[in-house]
Write a structure and sequence with these properties.
This protein is α+β, with helices and mostly antiparallel strands. The protein has one domain: Hotdog Thioesterase (Thiol Ester Dehydrase, Chain A), CATH 3.10.129.10. It is 21% helix and 39% strand. It has a 6-stranded antiparallel beta sheet with strand order 1-2-4-5-6-3. The longest helix is centred in the middle third of the chain and has 18 residues. The mean pLDDT is 93.
């Protein structure tokens, strides 16, 4: 995995003023293995039924995979867009910290595929599995 040089502080600042910042997503690791992020569960992450909102998990996993993709763009790529996200929910959380590890499965020139696992840190329980596919974006040629 080729990681563009960025500090964790720079990665965390990317989300300021955007959904990742509002959700409280904090990145804790960016390495050759993958990217790790976490959220301290608060009321704003919950559904009215008192359980973690599925969208919270999707946002965490998609953000981790997306930031991983950005850190691994091939030469000439300007960015990416998520084109598919598959989610399997295995459990939930009402409190504590949920953490996500996203690892690359495929780092191509036109697409990247990332697997993300979300766990409840304190319980050590896997609560969701994701596969995320990103289409890489390049400047249009003037031909």
């Amino acid at each position: 995995m080729q990681v563009r040089e960025r500090t964790l502080q720079q990665i965390n600042e990317l989300g300021t003023g955007y959904l990742p910042g509002h959700m409280g997503i904090v990145f804790t690791e960016l390495s050759g293995v993958g990217i790790r992020a976490e959220i301290l569960v608060r009321q704003c992450h919950m559904a009215p039924n008192g359980y973690l909102h599925a969208g919270t998990l999707v946002t965490l996993a998609d953000t981790a995979a997306g930031y991983g993709c950005t850190a691994n763009l091939p030469e000439g790529a300007l960015g990416f867009t998520t084109v598919e996200l598959k989610a399997n929910y295995l459990g939930t959380a009402r409190d504590g910290t949920i953490e996500c590890l996203a690892i690359p499965v495929h780092l191509g020139r036109s697409t990247q595929v990332w697997d993300a696992t979300v766990k409840h840190r304190e319980l050590g329980k896997t609560i969701a599995l994701f596969r995320c596919t990103q289409m890489l974006l390049y400047a249009k040629s003037s031909a």
